[in-house]
Amino acid sequence: MNCPTRKNEDAEILLDYCAQSLSPLQTVEFERHLNECGNCSRLVEAQKEVWNSLEAWTPIPVSSNFDARLYARIAQEQAAPSFLNWLRRILQPPVPYSFWKSAVPLTAACAVLALGLYVKTPDAPVAFPQQAQQHQVHATDHVDIEQVEQTLEDLDILTPAAQSPTGSM
Amino acid sequence: MALIPAQPSADPGVKKDMEAVAALDRDAELMLRVREGDDTSFALLLERHRGPVVHFLYRMVQNPSVSEELAQEVFLRVYRSRATYEPTAKFTTWLFRIATHLALNWVRDGKKEKNQESLDEQIADGMDRQVRDRQPTIEQEMLYEVKMSEVRQAIDALPAKQRAAVLMHKYQDLEYAQIARALNCSESAVKSLLFRAYEALRSRLAHMAG
Fold first, then answer.
1. Contact call for residues B103 and B57 (beta carbons, < 8 A)
2. Are B37 and B1 in contact (CB under 8 A)?
3. What is the pLDDT of residues B82-111, one digit of tens each?
4. Domain of B137?
5. B101 at A interface, C-beta within 8 A
6. ipTM > 0.90?
7. In a domain, B7, yes or no
8. Is residue A33 part of a domain?
9. Do B152 and A70 touch (CB under 8 A)?
10. Which of B76, B151, B191 has the CB atom closest to A74's CB atom?
11. Three-state secondary structure call for residue A60
């Protein structure tokens, strides 16, 4: 068997041995190991000492009026308005709600949503297809006008009036 | 509070629940009866678990009056949530989860410091009472008192979660899985907590050997 002093995972057997909660077979096996392992036998002795010290710690007796006080509190709650009892159930649950358990998937969903929005949003404002088409048309018109102006200038150069006044060759 | 004698349930839903928990434990069955409105079953549950819960809390907070106050709150919450009770685990696991939650909150809120002064006095009184009951000699009485004072201090010095784990393991005989549910952590975390706690106790109480 593995020595419980070498791995924390195996230390359970040591605690169970001192608590006498091992099966008879496990007890025999562990006692065989104890005979061979000085570390374990020292640890068991120390653990038994702790166990015995804790055993000797007897608690004080419960007050004789414990039940009466409890029933009085229950009766007081039952006599209170129902919305108060409802509030108590909400604000003082028997065991705490595991907010973090629901917070993990919620955070993951928010992260995915934020990532999606970031990816879908380009630097320029988003244009709808129809607007984009109009924008393209305007751009095309603008190029045409420039071309027309350029052409007109070229034509001016080519016309006889734009040539030298002498016009002689 | 009106105490009504326990009656077998006629409700098929409750019968089904009871069959489901029949193998689980008797306490869950009693709690299902409380859910139906049977206050006698609550009295039985109180009778069975009053001592263990008060003693667990006493060792956790080391103050008799606070431990009783917290124990009252535990049973009050059990009674308050009777209508929504579902036997998904052993009743004791649920009960000690409530007790641990309240005790850890009390420790976390720093109420411990406020009560420290009265604590020593009350513990000393308690010890005197316990020791006197057994009629030991003065020397035995003093030795016992010194020993118990060291044990209390050693337990008190443990982090609250380790303390709760040790107390449930040592005094309540709860299984690792039950302690894990009560502390809302994994079984391996409980084993680790226990190992570290007992290691600390071994080193603090080593001089008491022999």
1. yes
2. no
3. 988 888 888 999 999 999 999 999 998 876
4. 12-208
5. yes
6. no
7. no
8. yes
9. no
10. B76
11. coil
Q: Is residue A66 part of a domain?
A: no
Q: What is the pLDDT of residues B101-160, one digit of tens each?
A: 999 999 988 765 555 544 454 554 454 445 455 567 888 888 888 889 999 999 999 999
* Residue numbers in B near A85 (CB within 8 A): 80
Q: Taking phi first (over 0 means left), then psi (-120 to 50 degrees means alpha), and beta for anything else, what does residue B161 get?
A: alpha
Q: Which residue has the tokens 């809120």?
A: B109
SS (H, E, C) A4-16: CCCCHHHHHHHHH
Distance to chain A for B74, nearest Cα, Å = 8
How many domains does chain A fold into? 1
Question: Is A66 in contact with B54 (Cβ distance < 8 A)?
Answer: yes
pTM: 0.69
Contact B130 A58 (CB under 8 A): yes
Is residue B189 a part of any domain in this protein?
yes
Looking at residue A1, the DSSP 8-state letter turns out to be -
Q: The CATH number of the domain where B165 resides is what?
A: 1.10.1740.10
Smallest Cβ–Cβ distance between A74 and the set B50, B79, B144 belongs to B79
- Domain membership of residue B114 (yes or no) is yes
B5 in any annotated domain: no
Q: Which residues of A touch B188 (CB under 8 A)?
A: 9
